[in-house]
């Protein structure tokens, strides 16, 4: 029986590459996005998150095998907080009950190597406590200066998300239920999200000075999709709570001997 997977952010970038890869392998994939997807839902709102779960439950008959929480934003605005952290957590938590009848339930989220960059301690703390109104209010303050403090929003959401995975993966709800929960942290990937940053050779060099990728440079979305597919495959039985950097070496260059 083919596996049934749910992918958010399925209309473009890493999400689309993952959907195409899984479908080529014969899986049933339920794509979720703001447009051009089987399920159209806005993960920046509580209503949209609830609609996602309801739609997937109806389409799947109440049973899925894997969750790919890929959807994300990289704009210096509160919406990035709503989608990247609260939308992602709501996706995996809301869909987790539908994994109960799978022989090999799996879940993976997309974080970012940006979690290693400068972040806002107050925002990260609000995210960790699950305070969405407080986090949105803090992001609104940071967004007033898009070129400086606004740039901390994306990194803060990804840092908080990576920590959320570390803190929940080994709990009774996840590992105790036989569900490996992990995250991938991509470096620079050639997607619509980064198109304006890598449009010219000069821009690419400038970005790679900040995010060094000595192994093969900027990657295509399929590189991340292949890793995501393995993490959510039946072969992955014991990888738990890991943040896997698929970044061409950025983590190794920036953190050296540090392993966390």
From TrEMBL:
What's the domain of life for this entry? Bacteria
This entry's Gene Ontology molecular function terms read: oxidoreductase activity
Q: Does the keyword Zinc apply?
A: no
Keywords in alphabetical order, please: Oxidoreductase
Establish whether keyword Lipid metabolism is in the entry.
no
Q: Which InterPro entries match?
A: NAD(P)-bd_dom_sf (IPR036291), SDR_fam (IPR002347)
The entry sums up its family as follows:
Belongs to the short-chain dehydrogenases/reductases (SDR) family.
Cited PANTHER family: DEHYDROGENASES, SHORT CHAIN, ESTRADIOL 17-BETA-DEHYDROGENASE 8-RELATED
- Kindly provide the name given to this protein in its UniProt entry: Short-chain dehydrogenase
């Amino acid at each position: 029986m083919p596996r049934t997977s749910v992918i958010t952010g399925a209309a473009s970038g890493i999400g689309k590459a993952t959907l195409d890869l899984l479908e080529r392998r014969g899986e049933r994939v339920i794509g979720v996005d703001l447009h051009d997807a089987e399920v159209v839902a806005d993960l920046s709102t509580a209503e949209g998150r609830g609609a996602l779960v309801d739609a997937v439950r109806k389409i799947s008959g109440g049973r899925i095998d894997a969750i790919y929480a890929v959807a994300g934003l990289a704009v210096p605005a509160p919406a990035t907080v709503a989608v990247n952290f609260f939308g992602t957590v709501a996706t995996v938590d809301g869909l987790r009950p539908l994994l109960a009848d799978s022989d090999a339930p799996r879940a993976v989220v997309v974080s970012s190597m940006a979690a290693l960059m400068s972040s806002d301690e107050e925002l990260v703390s609000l995210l960790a406590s699950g305070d969405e109104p407080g986090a949105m209010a803090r992001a609104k303050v940071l967004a007033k200066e898009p070129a400086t403090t606004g740039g901390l929003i994306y990194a803060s959401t990804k840092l908080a998300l990576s920590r959320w995975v570390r803190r929940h993966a080994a709990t009774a709800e996840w590992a105790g239920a036989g569900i490996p929960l992990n995250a991938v942290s991509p470096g620079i990937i050639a997607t619509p999200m980064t198109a304006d940053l890598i449009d010219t050779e000069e821009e690419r060099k400038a970005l790679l000075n900040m995010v060094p990728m000595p192994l093969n440079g900027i990657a295509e979305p399929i590189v991340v999709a292949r890793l995501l597919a393995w993490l959510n495959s039946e072969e992955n039985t014991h990888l738990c709570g890991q943040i896997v950097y698929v970044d061409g070496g950025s983590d190794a260059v920036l953190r050296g001997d540090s392993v966390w």
